[in-house]
Amino acid sequence: MAQEEVKKLLSQAGAKLVGNIVKTDQSDAWSSFATTPLWMMTGNKRPYRWLPSAGIAEREILDMARFGGRLKQVLDAGGTPDETLFRGMSAVKIDEKLMTSEAVGRRSFPPVGRAADRLRPHLAAAAPRGALAVYRVSAADDCNRRPAERAAQNPAQTADPTKTVQAAPLLRAAFGRIMQTMQPEVYIRKLSAVLPNAPVGNDQMEAVLGMVGGLPSRVRRTILRSNAITSRHYAVDPQTGRATHTNTELAAAAVSALFDESFAAADMQCLELRRPYPDQILPGHGVMVHGLVANAPPCEVASLSGVCVAGMTAMKYAYQSIRSGEHRHAVAVAPNAPRR
User: Bridge partners of 275?
Assistant: First the structure.
């Protein structure tokens, strides 16, 4: 077993083993076959909610403090740590299932690794179609062998490092198609709206916006009867005709209205904005809004030009960023304050 191999290595190095502390992966052996590579590729221990978390649980890591405290207690008292150091502290929990899976792995990985070595020229092309590449990485990856061992086994490959099969590309290729079926579901969790100033009724529209040529519109009533709109909000002071809000201010206020105890500004990982009427040509509308949102973290920002359809494009961008697993939270905004 792995523990016995470590004992041999310690003995060969002249070290003295005084105790063992065992912490195991919080997911089962079969789940870890997927969760561990996904953790390596995404940097997220649990990129998909329907999978268990990879690695050792946080509570188990915190539990290590009591062993450190015990060791410190012995050393502070001038004692010498020995085999009784962690006795009675449940430092090792025997899991027969893990012992069985390790035994199977130790027997199956070496022959599969040797077979993969012989198939090395074809391995890259075959990786997307099976798990052979994953076995190759786990069982006989070049990173886990000493230079002398690599040279003894395959001198030609050692002389030409460009022929070395790297672990990361193999994992990406082998799990590329699998991850396509592991895409998370996407939900709209919150909505917000910011409406500037008091609502303006149909009969007050021209008093706020003004008339063309000083004459009332002949088609206004026909258009309003068709679209059934009865009121709207203008970012304009009806008395002075001056703008009261910019597009940037309205968008930043709408984004800030989303934040509460369940979704803080720090949780925002991606910000998409429709920009039909940007306040300026440069900088981009999106980064201007990002700069106005209080406590906004560094995040991906996209400014999408257009009018009506651009709002849905921003939502689609947010949807795809979550669906792909790149982000967990995204915000799509569609401000609309046309200039006079």
Answer: 305
